[in-house]
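Input:
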Amino acid sequence: MSRDPKRIPSMVKNRRLVEKRRRQIIRGACDLFVRKGFHKTTTREIARECGLSIGTMYEYIQSKEDVLYLVCEYIHSELEKRLKKALAEAGTGREGLTRAIAQHFKVMEEMSDYVLLIYQETKSLPREAMSYVLRKEEEITSFFEEILKRGIADGTLILDPSTVKLMAHNIMVLGQMWTFRRWALNGDYSLEEYTRCQTALLLDRMQPSEHGREMT
Amino acid sequence: MSRDPKRIPSMVKNRRLVEKRRRQIIRGACDLFVRKGFHKTTTREIARECGLSIGTMYEYIQSKEDVLYLVCEYIHSELEKRLKKALAEAGTGREGLTRAIAQHFKVMEEMSDYVLLIYQETKSLPREAMSYVLRKEEEITSFFEEILKRGIADGTLILDPSTVKLMAHNIMVLGQMWTFRRWALNGDYSLEEYTRCQTALLLDRMQPSEHGREMT
Amino acid sequence: MSRDPKRIPSMVKNRRLVEKRRRQIIRGACDLFVRKGFHKTTTREIARECGLSIGTMYEYIQSKEDVLYLVCEYIHSELEKRLKKALAEAGTGREGLTRAIAQHFKVMEEMSDYVLLIYQETKSLPREAMSYVLRKEEEITSFFEEILKRGIADGTLILDPSTVKLMAHNIMVLGQMWTFRRWALNGDYSLEEYTRCQTALLLDRMQPSEHGREMT
Amino acid sequence: MSRDPKRIPSMVKNRRLVEKRRRQIIRGACDLFVRKGFHKTTTREIARECGLSIGTMYEYIQSKEDVLYLVCEYIHSELEKRLKKALAEAGTGREGLTRAIAQHFKVMEEMSDYVLLIYQETKSLPREAMSYVLRKEEEITSFFEEILKRGIADGTLILDPSTVKLMAHNIMVLGQMWTFRRWALNGDYSLEEYTRCQTALLLDRMQPSEHGREMT
DNA sequence: TATGAATGAGTTTTCATTCAT
DNA sequence: CATGAATGAAAACTCATTCAT
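Output:
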């Protein structure tokens, strides 16, 4: 779909090397950004952390913002990858959705810091890069739209078509909520409990049958 | 409850004046932070925006972070105030909850930029200030816990006590979602539609009755 | 005439102070630029030389190029001032021109380093500033056009009107030549000799002698 | 005469190759220096422009300043070559001088950008290289001294021997003036007009006319 | 109290040059 | 000989904070 990840120019020709060095940069920068935030991290720190001299680092990027973009892009593609894999295993319909949600939440747990990072620093990206990142977010969200639509099609989910998109976003947000409300939820709920409750909340409404459901 | 809004020292003794000047600072800084973010706003800009000289401004704060704290605190207390007022009018039980949610969402709409700001910049606060802000957030959340508990008590809401807290957070987050997913939702849903759908989602699960309802 | 010396903004309000500090900056920078050239002089050196901290210096300029502009403008206005004064005393007609040329050459001698500087660094100015400087140069040149015209009018100079401008430029350039060919001329000619010869060269052609010649 | 063009060492032994590569370097660098100036041109750009890798380029030079020297030397020898050729054709005496001046001015027109370049960047050369370049300039100037002397000898030019040198410099400078005052002269004079006027100015003084004048 | 000029540590970024392959 | 990735010193510029008036 959105096949245009803003290409960041590099002074270095060797493709392989560029890939490798950028992975280094991303790894180092991710940690630092998570720990200190984008603005409080200096380029020299990033260089040191990823084992390059600043000079060398700047052979692979054009500006500090490029590093942020690289990091955001990486996180999003990682999320996408993991989610895609999870969804592939999940199957379809109601059952599939249940598993998909659980997988999504699991991914959120694993990527907790990174998701938080994206939420807090996306705004620091330059316009163009930011809209790419948001498009990516929407793309990921649409995975859930697909599952919901298939569930509607096979009759295992009851849902007004106009609310499909909203529901997909709800699923995304309730997953992310596990990362950015950790400080409030962590003491009271385990990921399993959290998943069970939120799944019930989301799925009960889409129940095709007329009788009893339980929450816990 | 949380009666300890980190006291920010001022060089100026006159209480009245301090209050007045800080209101000026908050108003100016809010706009700037929303527009450009905390880090990209300079103290000079803040001073200019709020009609003080930098020297004067620094008579009322100790550091730039203090301004952020002041702003966050202001936004939270504004949110709290509005929500409290809304909840006071909302009444109790199921009916009350419906109205409370609608009010909450309306407040989110009104305070959209500010809510977003808090979400993105809270991390920039120094430890102590940050935990105060988070505590405040939890406090606001607990308003909904109260309503839910009262609903359970009067039998108009069915909900496992262990999920009360989670539900309260869900309500908060689904409200905030209207601000930080605006870019994705705005085209497809009006605030009214959004409110109706999310309310249905949230309340259906707590329905004490045994029979079918619709979403739209 | 060209009443628009590109106004360079300053962070500091106090006009007097701005004037004073900029004079400091110009003085320090002039020396350094003459000695090392614009590009090989660092902003820190300029600041040190003029007794300001870099921070302070940057309160009065926006960029290093501004310093160059300030310096060029200063030199030009100094040249203009001295030349104007000289020309005012010079009187009119053939006599006046002789004295004007001598004064001009004297000014070139005095301002030798600065004239050289302008010749070598004007190109480093940003477009807008450069064209202002060139306009100024043309303006100064036109002083000589005026004298020539007056000489033609009063009959003490014979010159085809179409060559007035060229002659004015010649006078300018033969003056500047004393600065940028110093390395070659200094050993062989004193300023007096130089002046006498060049004046003869320039004026003989314009002699209203009994057996009139024409130029074209 | 000045047979000591500062030898620039090269890592490469093959003479032929060194010559060839340096010609490449000069060609690329000339264009860039004219367009952007020496300091604003990077070594990478030079290498790219002349089709070498930086590594390779540095096999043939020792520093960026070497490139400037190479360029200046090239321009000067080109000027010398063309002027020599022109002067050879020009003949001697008054007639010859007239033609020589016209040829010189024509060369200035052709080499306009390069002459300008030399005037602005010579100062950026390291001491030794600079004095070589200046010596070269003097050498070229002395061509005109020769012509003048021959003119004096054959009686077609009247000129005090002590002013020969000055006149030669004047001829040089009035030619160069066509390049560095282009911005002011171009609109008003064609090269032909310019040449005619300046030649008249220069030669009239040296006229062996019937009622001899002297220069003092 | 109010002001705003002064400060300089700290930031991002560039680029001439080297050297292992 | 040719290559181009690596280097890091050095550059321009910023900005939170202070303090004399």
